[in-house]
């Protein structure tokens, strides 16, 4: 597949809500897996902490379950984390780095 055709395919995908939904799911599940690894928490331990089964945690990490914001919050809190949701213009970069820079500048 040529670079041009891949680019066109990607641009077409971005016009669909499903693309943005899957992107948000991937971002959350990657962050969740990173926190679990950093904290040394297994799927079974996280499941026990939030009162679900280990297979459910596995499904969450694979993005194979339609989880709610309540579930996202429970999972984050079980790992000592908070959930932050922000809106940004379509096509912009994540904005997280900008938010962190602003917060650090405010504390200085």
Q: Write down how many β-strands occur, each being a DSSP E stretch of 2 or more residues.
A: 0
N to C succession of SSEs: HHHHHH
Number of DSSP helical runs: 6
The overall average pLDDT, rounded, is: 86
Shape: elongated
* Percentage of residues in strands: under 5%
Low-pLDDT segments? none
Q: How helical, in percent, are the residues?
A: 55-70%
The SS-based structural class is: mainly alpha
Radius of gyration, in Å, reads: 17 Å
Taking the sheet with the most strands, its summary is: none
- Terminal CA distance reads 49 Å
Report on the structure:
This protein is mostly helical and 108 residues long. Helices cover 68% and strands 0% of the residues. It contains six helices and no strands. Helix 3 packs across helix 4 (54-62). The radius of gyration is 17 Å and the shape is elongated. The termini are far apart. The mean pLDDT is 86.
In short:
With about 110 residues, this protein is mainly α.
Structural descriptors:
108 residues; mainly alpha; 68% helix; elongated
Helices, strands, pairings?
Blueprint: H1 3-13, H2 17-39, H3 43-50, H4 54-62, H5 69-78, H6 96-107
Helix pairs in contact: 3-4
């Amino acid at each position: 597949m040529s670079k041009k055709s891949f680019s066109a395919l990607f641009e077409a995908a971005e016009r669909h809500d499903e693309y943005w939904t899957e992107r948000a799911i991937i971002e959350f599940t990657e962050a969740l897996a990173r926190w679990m690894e950093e904290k040394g928490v297994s799927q079974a331990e996280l499941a026990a902490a939030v009162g679900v089964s280990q297979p459910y945690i596995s499904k969450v990490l694979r993005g194979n379950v339609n989880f709610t914001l309540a579930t996202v919050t429970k999972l984050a809190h079980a790992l000592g984390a908070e959930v932050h949701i922000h809106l940004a213009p379509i096509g912009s970069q994540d904005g997280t780095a900008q938010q962190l820079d602003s917060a650090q500048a405010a504390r200085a």
